[in-house]
Write a structure and sequence with these properties.
There is one protein chain. The protein is mainly alpha-helical. Helices cover 37% and strands 9% of the residues. A hairpin with a 5-residue loop joins β2 and β3. It is globular and about 45 Å long.
């Protein structure tokens, strides 16, 4: 999420409630693309979710977007940013709405943790956000996923619900992921 056109990352300045509103707005935008006009974005990432002066989320950068047409998928060469790739898209080249859902799940994890999808400065077991988060989720250590500047802002129930949504979105098996309408 970028609140300014200068490309700088301003996530840390948003309160939890603002972040939730941004996530809901982005989800609605993706749902419209998927359900309303049958487009797969192909490049869902935090920097492609822009905020206006009222912090209303706008999905941007449609350079890789593809129309699905009558089918539920398209076959396309893998493009986008590592860390947001749907594992099944990466291995099969089949692009579906659930590929965007996976990337949205990565964004959800970024919003919660304040971490990038991939951070090469970290050790190998922490390099990829989804793998790191998966370990914390399996162990039930949801509180360790929360960025330090958000600690104390998120109720336990809210955190559990949020992590559950993110976990479902980044599920390895695309059949187990929700649609954006369900999200």
């Amino acid at each position: 999420m970028d609140t300014h056109s200068d490309g700088l990352d301003h996530r840390s300045s948003l309160a939890w409630e603002q972040r939730l509103r941004v996530c809901i707005g982005a989800a609605r935008g993706l749902d419209y693309l998927h359900s309303g006009i049958s487009i797969v974005h192909r490049d869902v990432k935090s920097t492609n979710i822009l905020l206006d002066e009222d912090f209303v989320a706008r999905v941007s950068d449609f350079g890789l977007a593809m129309q699905l047409g009558a089918t539920s998928h398209v076959t396309a060469s893998v493009k986008g940013l590592f860390g947001y790739f749907d594992p099944s898209y990466f291995t099969t080249g089949r692009l579906t709405r659930k590929s965007d859902v996976y990337a949205f799940g990565v964004v959800l994890l970024e919003v919660l943790s304040g971490r990038a999808a991939v951070d090469h400065r970290l050790s190998e077991d922490e390099l990829c956000l989804t793998m790191w988060a998966h370990e914390k989720i399996i162990k039930g250590k949801f509180d360790q996923l929360v960025a330090s500047n958000l600690r104390g802002e998120i109720s336990e129930d809210c955190l559990k619900t949020y992590v559950d949504h993110a976990k479902r979105c980044v599920h390895q098996n695309l059949m187990n992921r929700p649609t954006m309408t369900q999200e």
